[in-house]
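Page 47, continued from p. 46.
Same chain as before, 117 aa.
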Amino acid sequence: MEMICITCPKGCTLKIEQNNDKLIVTGNSCPRGVVYAENEIFHPMRMITSTVRIKGASIARCPVMSSVPVPKEKMFDVMKVIENTTIEAPVQCNQVLIHNICDLDCDLVATRTLKKL
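Result:
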């Protein structure tokens, strides 16, 4: 298997082979490539960026993001909560909108300040 490491701008092409429970990673120019490959194979995580509906602001949706990466297999659960969320203006950038979303020790945070009309 091959993948591109995204931990730095180099973008090394990693070659990954699995030998029993151990991964053999080659093609990395630094140790971060091995860690990246192991995480992507055994426990992939992703940041979530999206928008939520907002009432009383100059635009209809407020941009948001997760405070930390969430397990890839939980992304649809988080997105379902986001889809069913409506907030009210005013909102400050970095304001926590949903604390501990889906019990993942992750907050949903506004990424834009929106004033009340």
